[in-house]
Amino acid sequence: MSMVSLRHHHISIKFPELNSRRISRSLDSHRIRLRMVYASSSVKEAANCIPAAPILLPEGPWKQISGGVTAAKGFKAAGIYGGLRAQGEKPDLALVTCDVDAVSAGAFTTNVVAAAPVAYCKKALQASRTARAVLINAGQANAATGDAGYQDVIECANALAKLLQIRSEEVLIESTGVIGHRIKKDTLLNSLPKLVISLSSSTEGADSAAVAITTTDLVRKSVAIESKVGETCVRVGGMAKGSGMIHPNMATMLGVVTTDARVNSDVWREMVQIAVCRSFNQITVDGDTSTNDTVIALASGLSGSPEVSSLNSFEAKQLQSCLDAVMQGLAKSIAWDGEGATCIIEVMVTGANNEAEAAKIARSVASSSLAKTAVYGRDPNWGRIACAAGYAGIPFQPRDLRISLGEIMLMDCGQPLSFDRVAASDYLKQVGEVHGTVEIHISVGNGPGKGRAWGCDLSYDYIKINAEYTT
């Protein structure tokens, strides 16, 4: 019996002599399997490019699980190296897809010089209540690139839509990288088939996507939780990137959040805005607000839970808590990974008139360069904290001000207290040695308002990193 030999990727396979149609089917099937094996291998390699960030979830009735953006039912993800980065071969192209039309929502930078993908996503979300895919590139921000940059986004969305056999308006785009540089469009378009083949519902797929969206990040940021909405178990997952140019409204950060909860479109969009205000809008690294900040949130509804149709319902409050938890976990990972940082700074404010006022005071303190450098210098200089609280623009009585550093009370009733300065300095040193969380507690009165913000210390390395970053 004569044999037909196939050589591909250094593998030799022999088939008995058959009719040409059967041979062709066998060869095509083999090639598909090889591509799938190669894609799976690429995804696993991508997932391990950089380590995982610590996920600092708030306490609640949820369980942390693996899976990130693919934990919820109906979602797949992939991250590959497509040749978009200026140097190195870290993955730079990510894709998250949903098997069904997912209810969509987004939050974006308030920077007037918004990037082309931001403008595109806003328009797409106005045109459609649902989405099926989020494509993200690193390397070029495609910001301040004019009409040509916007056209690049449209062509990328159209090409991906064709491959996925969905409508173009169901494709959303995020970009990160150097401002003023257009996407390497031809390179990206040529990489799309490989990216689509690499899609996986596995944890590796989610982790590879989380790596591909990073820039100066030292860790990948991915989290998922499982909890109840009504009597149904639902999952919420997400990934984000961010390390520098981080400041409220929003930060230099990209994010994708997924859930299999079933929720009304208008309710979902309002819930996402609330969660962003409690998380990504409450982090700061260096006071710079980027051109590209985007968070896209998709709800597949595949958990089988009853539809959340009212923001005031008990089920909505359950889902809101889950969404808040995932976004806060990711936001704190961004603060933890702040460029040159040695610790997180968590500012907790109580006693304000309402949540918004407490949040604004917390942001003011977390954003203070003087407070941040004092923490890096392990100097318990509470005066800088009091100063930053005072210029937040929220009126309160100075005699009501109370400040604690960890468990050490520094000020009460607006008066300085005698405290062990060495112990307070040691607290800051010990936290810095383990890249932990410095806790600053502030009370400004007896009101019901509570708020939190997260930042990091400001070190010499921050200057070095950004002095050497091409802008």
Automatic annotation (TrEMBL):
Q: What metabolic or biological pathway is this protein involved in?
A: Amino-acid biosynthesis; L-arginine biosynthesis; N(2)-acetyl-L-ornithine from L-glutamate: step 1/4; Amino-acid biosynthesis; L-arginine biosynthesis; L-ornithine and N-acetyl-L-glutamate from L-glutamate and N(2)-acetyl-L-ornithine (cyclic): step 1/1
Q: Which residues bind substrate?
A: T215, K241, T252, E339, N466, T471
Q: What is this protein called?
A: Arginine biosynthesis bifunctional protein ArgJ, chloroplastic
One Gene Ontology MF term:
L-glutamate N-acetyltransferase activity
* Family under the similarity heading: Belongs to the ArgJ family.
InterPro entries, alphabetized: Arg_biosynth_ArgJ, ArgJ-like_dom_sf, ArgJ_beta_C
Q: Does the keyword Amino-acid biosynthesis apply?
A: yes
**Which Gene3D superfamilies does the annotation name?**
ArgJ beta chain, C-terminal domain, L-amino peptidase D-ALA esterase/amidase
